UniProtKB/TrEMBL annotation:
Pfam families: SpoU_methylase (PF00588). This is TrmH family RNA methyltransferase. Residues 68-208 form the tRNA/rRNA methyltransferase SpoU type domain. InterPro entries: Alpha/beta_knot_MTases (IPR029028), Ribosomal_eL30-like_sf (IPR029064), rRNA_Methyltransferase (IPR051259), SpoU_MeTrfase (IPR001537), tRNA_m1G_MTases_N (IPR029026). The keyword Ribosomal protein does not apply. GO terms for biological process: methylation; RNA processing. Gene3D superfamilies: 3.30.1330.30, 3.40.1280.10. Keywords: Methyltransferase, Transferase. One of its GO terms (molecular function) is RNA methyltransferase activity. It comes from the Bacteria.
Length: 216
């Protein structure tokens, strides 16, 4: 953290945060409610805003010794990206990789949807999707591409090796070349009448299925 801004109301409500900032020699600046509204992106700001260093790391460092990695390819909705980061954190994944044209994880909506998880799980970003797939293989990870049209069902998988799950754009799914490059395309079985699952739900099912199998 580089600097903290707080309204009088927020300072009174969160004295521990301000004390912690002072202990770390982080400047704390008082602001008005109007200024807090201008600095934040929410309808009802909490009145406290921090300026922080971005949290993403080099791809090579986050894949070292990884056994479960979540990869988002061309995901455009920040709320989805943040929710998947939160899911990956909760499931004990080792890293989240945001590839291609995926939204910036530091986007305000993404940060709020992650609910603190961006500070818990290593994140990496790269525009080069083929390079990301190469790095995953080099790290010893088997790549599973989530696709509603795949012939292999999630029920049939056995998780005996380190895994990287690939999830695509909300509207279009994963690009054809990414599906072809993955070790396996996998679909989630639908037992009811719904035609599909949204991205965050699909990611939660796949990632948690892997995590639970590994922990068993």
């Amino acid at each position: 953290m580089h600097e903290l801004f707080a309204t009088e109301r927020a300072a009174a409500a969160h004295p521990v945060l301000l004390t912690a900032a002072a202990d770390l020699a982080v400047p704390v600046s008082p602001i008005t409610d109007r200024a807090a509204a201008g600095l934040s992106e929410t309808v009802t700001p909490q009145g406290i805003v921090a300026v922080c260093t971005v949290v993403d790391r080099p791809l090579e460092t986050v894949l070292a010794a990884a056994r479960l990695v979540v990869v988002l390819v061309d995901v455009s909705e920040p709320g989805n990206a943040g929710t998947v980061i939160r899911v990956a954190d909760a499931a004990g994944a080792d890293a989240v990789l945001l590839a291609g044209d995926t939204v910036d994880p530091h986007n305000g909506k993404s940060v709020r949807s992650a609910a603190g998880s961006i500070f818990h799980i290593p994140l990496a970003r790269t525009r080069d999707v083929p390079a990301a797939l190469t790095a995953l293989r080099a790290a010893g990870l088997r790549t599973f591409a989530a696709s509603g049209y795949a012939t292999t069902s999630l029920e049939a998988l056995r998780f005996t090796t380190p895994v990287a799950w690939l999830f695509g754009n909300e509207a279009h799914g994963l690009p054809v070349d990414v599906l072809a490059a993955a070790d396996e395309s996998v679909r989630i079985p639908l037992y009811g009448k719904a035609e599909s699952l949204n991205l965050a739900t699909a990611a939660a099912v796949c990632v948690y299925t892997t995590a639970m199998a590994t922990h068993r």
